[in-house]
Specification:
Layout (H helix, E strand, L loop, with lengths): L1 E8 L10 E3 L23 H13 L7 H4 L11 E7 L2 H8 L2 H9 L10 E6 L7 E4 L4 E3 L5 H5 L3 E5 L16 H13 L3 H15 L4 H20 L24 E3 L3 E3 L5 H19 L11 E5 L8 H14 L6
Parallel strand pairs: 7-10
Antiparallel strand pairs: 1-2, 1-3, 3-4, 4-5, 5-6, 8-9
């Protein structure tokens, strides 16, 4: 499933025009077939198009209302509207990635014939928490209850902004690229005997009364209990270490890069940090394409704002080659 076109109305520098921007889509074999390049002067709306796509997927950024994003020349009653037409293998994407009880609803809104199928979706400032589906018969958008989250699960968007600290993409939080890459590995590892043996050893070391650590902790527990009882009343004080979860493994993980000087990534230059972040995003896109049970790949849309930022000209050439290759199958 691919983004075929977008219409942006009354969003920041975009005014009342409903003209559509049409995108190149991957054909599965040609280098660069899914690569779209926006070129223009400063303040011409290139990054704003990205922001409009982000509004379409998620609604207004945290701390902002739709009014903060409205074109300043728009009439007070004129709503923001971002309207996206998707094409490609829509039915199989819905079957593989939408929750079962919403598949029929979504499928009913697919339209087109002669091998060309489309799904048109819009988000408006009138009810910015909802996504609306285009009814081709009625020629109008419909609001189906509870459909926003199922639609969002059909595809992945990732934005690399020109002013984003590249270190943010290389951290291991649950919502970052690194965190998403490793979370599936962690879930798989949790089902292994190796991990169960590790949990047992952890419990024996930290919570077994006979371990050396517990013996030393006992002194602190007893002294704390004595002070507590003298001041507040009788109670038993113990330190207990909760069972280790796999998602806790990565909280203290850091990336190291040895390019002749072995250092943590945050000690490298900004160009190196951005290059590693972009490489991680490429790997994430490849992993999405390896869905173990799906007949199709999960749509992944990559938006890079000023991709040349912080990159040496040679690095820019390498990035272009990589994007040309990825865009055989992913839309960029």
């Amino acid at each position: 499933m691919y983004m075929e076109s977008i219409s942006i109305t009354n969003f920041k520098c975009f005014g009342t025009s409903t003209d559509r921007v049409h995108f190149c889509v991957p054909d599965g074999k040609t280098r660069g077939s899914g690569l779209n390049t926006l070129v223009g002067e400063n303040n011409s709306g290139k990054s704003t198009l990205f922001e409009a796509v982000q509004f379409f997927r998620e609604g207004p950024p945290r701390g902002k209302s739709p009014d903060d994003l409205k074109n300043k020349w728009a009439n007070p009653d004129d709503p923001i509207d971002v309207d996206v037409v998707f094409g490609g293998p829509i039915e199989s994407t819905i079957t593989d990635f939408a929750q079962k009880n919403k598949q029929e609803v979504l499928t009913n809104y697919i339209y087109g014939g002669n091998g060309k199928r489309n799904l048109r979706i819009s988000r408006s400032s009138v009810d910015h928490k909802e996504l609306r589906l285009w009814n081709e018969v009625d020629q109008s958008f419909k609001n189906e209850t509870g459909i926003a989250a199922p639609i969002q699960r059909l595809f992945e968007f990732n934005f690399v902004w020109a002013d984003t600290n590249p270190q943010d993409e290389t951290k291991f939080g649950s919502t970052t690229i690194c965190g998403k890459l490793l979370s599936e590995i962690a879930r798989t590892f949790a089902d292994t005997q190796e991990f169960r043996d590790f949990q047992h050893t952890f419990s024996e070391t930290f919570n077994s009364e006979g371990s050396g650590l517990r013996v030393r902790l006992k002194e602190i527990e007893q002294r704390t209990q004595e002070v507590f009882e003298s001041q507040f009343g009788k109670a038993r004080i113990t330190f207990h270490f909760d069972e280790l979860k796999t998602d806790g493994f990565f909280k203290n993980v850091h990336i190291k890069v040895d390019d002749g000087l072995d250092l943590y990534l945050d000690e490298k230059g900004t160009g190196m940090q951005r290059s590693v972040a972009l490489a991680l995003i490429q790997v994430y896109a490849e992993n999405l394409a390896k869905h173990p049970t799906a007949d199709t790949t999960k749509p992944f849309f990559l938006f890079i704002d000023e991709p040349e930022t912080c990159l040496h000209p040679q690095g820019q050439l390498h990035l272009l080659k990589a994007l040309m290759e990825i865009s055989k199958t992913q839309q960029i």
